[in-house]
Write a structure and sequence with these properties.
single chain; about 400 residues; alpha+beta; MetI-like fold; 2 domains; 3-stranded antiparallel β-sheet; two-stranded antiparallel sheet; about 55% helix
């Protein structure tokens, strides 16, 4: 007599998926245990979506600044009186319901009989195709390589393309905005690098040695920080000779901004050095006969390098705003040099802004890049401490 069989219990369909999830979690945990500091920072950073977007915008703007001669359709100092305050022209691909290659309509001028102001109307009878990789005004890429190839433009001498309109002298605002990005973006980067070199060096030696050196450095920092920024900028900018060429003015303004911007970082570096100068690895380096300068730059500074990188990304927009403010007030970069602050001088006249609101485009560029840097800095600051929640 056969015994009754015990019915087999079928495996739940959710068990394989639960087991796969547990194995995936275990694999991810194992990867964290063996990951380097750089990998942990990257994994934390890529979770910060606004920081990714900000980083992409920053990279694109620096690429624009790097290749501004090729990207600008016109020479930034070329003027044409017939295009004075010409409005922005929209690139179109549809004409009379048909899709065509990119083009812009021409503009016709007329003078207002009451205000005598020049008026522009779109003339749909004139179409100018937008060409890519066209020959135009000659330039020197980075001051080294001669060329005349531009990314886009109008090859008809009777036509013109002003994506952001023209200013009071008929100069293309888009071309000037692109050229201005090189000065404004580079002065922010170079100025921050100089500030960080000064701040790390002075603050590092102050915190490492202490004593009388620390007291003198801290009093100097307190004096500089107690002076209002605008009068200090004005005093240092006034020391620059008026007859200096634009190149010297550029480097002079960079040094001025760096001399003001190093103080806060020196305070931070000093506090970090005070907390780590008695650590075991620092003591071991001393006992092994390592020089003090090497201890500072080789062992102590890398201990908080991630924090320094995050703070650099947050300091660059402040430097850009400082240069823009100085140039806007006429104390920084001066014409014929081109920066976003110089371009905003065109917007000082309320009447000009009322007639040509597109002259505020450099201000929008400053807002965009400052927001992008702030988002990027927030992401780097979070990534600098990958173990925090």
């Amino acid at each position: 007599m056969t015994e009754p069989r015990t019915p087999s219990v079928a495996a739940s369909p959710s068990e394989p998926s639960a087991r796969a999830q547990r194995e995936s979690a275990q694999t991810a945990e194992d990867k964290i245990f063996v990951a380097s500091q750089g990998q942990l920072m990257w994994w934390r950073f890529r979770k910060h979506k606004p920081a990714i977007v900000g980083g992409i915008i920053v990279i694109l703007v620096y690429l624009v600044a790097l290749f501004c001669e090729f990207l600008a359709p016109y020479d930034p100092v070329k003027y044409d009186q017939k295009d004075t305050y010409a409005p922005p022209q929209r690139i179109r691909i549809v004409d009379q319901g048909k899709v065509q290659s990119p083009f812009v309509y021409g503009l016709t001028q007329s003078r207002d009989p009451v205000s005598y102001r020049m008026m522009f109307q779109v003339d749909q009878g004139k179409k100018y195709p937008v060409r890519f990789f066209v020959r135009g005004s000659a330039y020197k890429m980075w001051g080294l390589f001669e060329g005349d190839l531009h990314l886009f433009g109008i090859d008809d001498p009777e036509g013109s393309i002003h994506l952001l309109g023209a200013d009071r002298m008929g100069r293309d605002v888009f071309s000037r905005l692109v050229y201005g990005a090189r000065v404004s973006m580079s002065i922010g980067l170079v100025g921050v690098i100089l500030s960080f070199v000064l701040g790390i060096t002075i603050g590092g030696f102050s915190g490492y040695y202490g004593g009388a050196l620390d007291t003198v450095v801290q009093r100097i920092i307190e004096f500089i920080r107690s002076v209002p920024s605008i009068p200090l900028w004005m005093a240092l900018s006034a020391a620059l000779p008026v007859d200096w060429p634009p190149t010297k003015i550029y480097f002079g303004i960079t040094v001025v901004l760096s001399l003001i911007g190093w103080t806060w970082l020196a305070r931070v570096v000093r506090s970090q050095f005070l907390s780590i100068r008695e650590e075991d690895y620092v003591m071991a380096a001393r006992l092994s006969g390592t020089g003090e300068v090497r201890i500072i730059y080789r062992h102590m500074v890398p201990a908080f390098m991630s924090y320094i990188i995050a703070q650099m990304s947050l300091s660059i927009p402040n430097m850009i705003l400082s240069e823009t403010s100085l140039s806007f007030l006429g104390l920084g970069i001066r014409a014929p040099a081109i920066s976003w602050g110089v371009l905003l001088q065109e917007a000082q006249n309320l009447r000009a802004v009322a007639l040509a609101p597109w002259l505020l485009a450099p201000g929008l560029a400053v807002v965009l890049i400052v927001l992008a840097f702030n988002f990027l800095g927030d992401g780097l600051r979070d990534a600098a401490d990958p173990y925090s929640r």
